[in-house]
Amino acid sequence: MELFELTLAEAAAAVEERSLSPVELTDSVLGRIDAVEERLQAYVTLTGESARDAAARAEREIAAGGYRGPLHGIPFGLKDMIDAAGMPTTASSRVRADHFAQADSAVAGRLSAAGGVLIGKTHTHEFAYGLTTPQTRNAWDQDRIAGGSSGGSAVAVAAGTATFALGTDTGGSIRVPAALNGLVGLKPTYGLVPRHGVVALSWSLDHVGPLTRTVRDAALVLSALVGPAPEDPGSLRTAPTAYPLSPGDSDLTGLRVGVPVNYYFDRVAPEVEAAVREAHTQLADMGAELVEVEIPMTRYVQATQWGLMVPEATAAHERTLRSVPELYAPDVRILLEAGELVSAGDYLRAQRSRTLMRQAWLSMFDGIDVLAAPTVPMTATKTDQTSVSWPDGSTESVSDAYVRLSAPANITGLPSLSLPVGRDHAGLPVGMQLIGRPLGEAAVLRTGHAYETAHPWSRPPA
């Protein structure tokens, strides 16, 4: 195994015991970037020299007894919606081509304090307003989409050009690319991870979270990110600060896993459904109790998601949409202009719908601990595919299809973890998401960790 292939937990253990140097690990990751970045295009900006300097500094600190924890000396990527002092934050858009961050975002500052080594800024669908990330290619098949909007972060981790990365998730933008690239992606509870210094798409739906190779890695990164941030008005004031997982623990006795009887298996590719239902059986074999549940208010999901996101995004871009509209990509510009047509009444109705939906979902969780469902209804599509047709005669755009199953966790603000549970006939990854109660990260992480312990996942071909 090459050093760039190590999981975060594996690399951290080796660094702590000084059998692996942060400089060696960083050099391996940078060498991997040299080998694959030209064809994958995961990064907007690379920081090779400063990364080497940070790795050397981490090595000296650890040698002097100043080990800071499992992220010390570990190379990571940041989605280019997230500020890092002195670096551009372009949001993969010509609109922000000249923007340089004056200070670290809250999350970048916390990763720096933990000793992480920033490798670079990763591509996003422009302003995170899309589900494909067209600049970037899937780590498993370059003719397929990477998923979005955190496609660059996902491909970097899957391809070994970052040990972990951060993304943002407004309607599935961490979990969708995680599912399509065979990774773990965590959208935490709304407000658990601060968003100060992160470019907003939709302030009432935006989340920041990790993309990693394992659930255990996700828990390690999350522990470094959580905690109140006074400068972020949406940040939770009290929350758990650590998410320990017992190595090798695959016993789920006493855990109630919700199995949807509606919505989550409607208009889903047969191979995706088969993989997730097999995962349900495997969770039961580990001691979990499967409980059938009806998902509430499903007819309102799409209208509520778009009714919140579209006008909020347009409001965030009001000035630049009027002054430099020609700098936006056509697909994003159309969505932003459409937001000007949403009335205040429609927006308020979407907010009311969100409140009712959240209440109904919380009632559903009275009888279960986690909900286990497909992350996306199909594996990665070809890059030139724009729509998908279903056996019931319906057709939807690729973006609508990918957001459909992930949006409920954004609307309700509930934690959702995507992890790989199989492959389709083409060898492409299938993802399952585990959704929990508010601040239920410990439960979804424990469930995902147990599953991956019993069913290890293989990584993409080099």
Description:
By secondary structure, this protein is α/β, with parallel strands linked by helices. It has 2 domains: 3-225, Amidase signature (AS) enzymes, CATH 3.90.1300; 256-454, Amidase signature (AS) domain (Amidase signature (AS) enzymes, Alpha-Beta Complex), CATH 3.90.1300.10. It contains 15 helices and 13 strands. The strands form 2 sheets. An 11-stranded mixed beta sheet has the order 1-3-2-4-6-5-12-13-9-7-8, sandwiched between helices. It has a two-stranded antiparallel sheet with strand order 10-11. The chain starts with 7 loop residues before the first helix and ends in an 8-residue tail after the last helix. The mean pLDDT is 97.
Describe the secondary structure blueprint for this structure.
Layout: H1 8-16, H2 22-40, E1 43-46, H3 48-63, E2 75-79, H4 106-113, E3 117-122, H5 151-159, E4 164-169, H6 175-180, E5 184-187, E6 207-212, H7 215-225, E7 256-260, H8 270-285, E8 289-293, H9 301-316, H10 318-323, H11 330-339, H12 344-364, E9 370-374, E10 387-389, E11 395-397, H13 398-404, H14 407-412, E12 416-423, E13 429-436, H15 441-454
Parallel strand pairs: 2-3, 2-4, 7-8, 7-9
Antiparallel strand pairs: 1-3, 4-6, 5-6, 5-12, 9-13, 10-11, 12-13
Domain Amidase: 24-445
Protein name: Amidase
